[in-house]
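Title: Comparing notes on inverse folding

I've been comparing how different people in this forum approach sequence design from structure. To keep things fair, I'm posting one structure and asking everyone to reply with a full sequence. Here's the target:
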């Protein structure tokens, strides 16, 4: 190609661009507010990345909650198709959350220690949106809401998720409505209590998997849940390995045992019978 044919700019003279907008891109997205929210507390170069990674993750989690809440409402109304679409979208959001750890892992231990004191006792453990997602998926632990008692609105939001049926609770109610033998202990219970696996629930899922052609939407829904949990565990694992890489086995800023605490979370299951049934098939 001749150098004379290489263009250095685009001719916009014929474009019908709205130079005077009724609402601008920056106004619609409230960019002035958004981009002024990165308040560096130290002189460290890397603190900017640390803040943006966590702020972006909170925005993605807000979208997760938006989709998850709607999916749960659809499930209550037996609209499993739209619910699956929303869960599939969450899976794409989870990919972004997982990749965020790859960016954060470019920070060395020395980089992190240059601003760690600026965090004080703040910690991802205190993320109320993360706790809402975890509770909504079924990992109920009433003790966790203590971290939010100093913020009434956040506390009420987390408490609401704790006391409401989880996505899995609603799924089991759907199975019961479809005629499966789901015990009342699992369809009418204290929603704030930790879920306990049931042989009858596992038997119901076994029938769904063995008779997949007859229960196709339930079979597909089950796989959507497995995919959701798989990605959540991948996120947890990536989090743990990133923390291990950067701070080793130091105690977390929020007071947890750091990596040791994060490793324990890898043993938690949201939908235990869906994993157990794979051995039984």
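Reply #1:
Here's my take.
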């Amino acid at each position: 190609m001749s150098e004379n044919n290489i263009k250095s700019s685009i001719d916009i003279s014929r474009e019908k661009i709205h130079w005077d907008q009724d609402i601008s891109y920056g106004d619609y997205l409230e960019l002035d507010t958004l981009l002024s929210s990165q308040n560096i507390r130290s002189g460290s170069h890397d603190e900017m990345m640390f803040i943006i990674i966590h702020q972006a993750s909170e925005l993605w989690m807000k979208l997760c909650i938006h989709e998850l809440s709607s999916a749960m409402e659809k499930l209550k109304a037996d609209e499993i198709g739209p619910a699956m679409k929303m869960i599939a979208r969450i899976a794409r959001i989870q990919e972004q959350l997982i990749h965020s750890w790859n960016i954060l892992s470019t920070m060395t231990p020395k980089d992190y220690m240059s601003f760690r004191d600026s965090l004080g006792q703040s910690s991802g453990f205190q993320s109320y949106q993360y706790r809402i997602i975890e509770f909504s998926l079924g990992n109920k632990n009433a003790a966790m809401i203590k971290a939010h008692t100093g913020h009434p609105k956040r506390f009420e939001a987390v408490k609401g998720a704790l006391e409401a049926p989880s996505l899995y609770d609603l799924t089991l109610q759907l199975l019961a409505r479809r005629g499966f033998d789901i015990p009342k202990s699992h369809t009418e219970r204290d929603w704030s209590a930790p879920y306990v696996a049931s042989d009858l629930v596992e038997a119901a899922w076994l029938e769904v998997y063995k008779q997949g052609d007859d229960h196709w939407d339930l079979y597909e829904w089950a796989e959507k849940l497995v995919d959701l949990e798989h990605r959540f565990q991948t996120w947890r694992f990536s989090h743990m390995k990133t923390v291990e890489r950067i701070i080793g086995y130091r105690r977390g800023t929020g007071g947890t045992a750091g990596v040791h605490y994060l490793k324990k979370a890898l043993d938690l299951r949201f939908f235990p019978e869906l994993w157990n049934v794979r051995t039984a098939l």
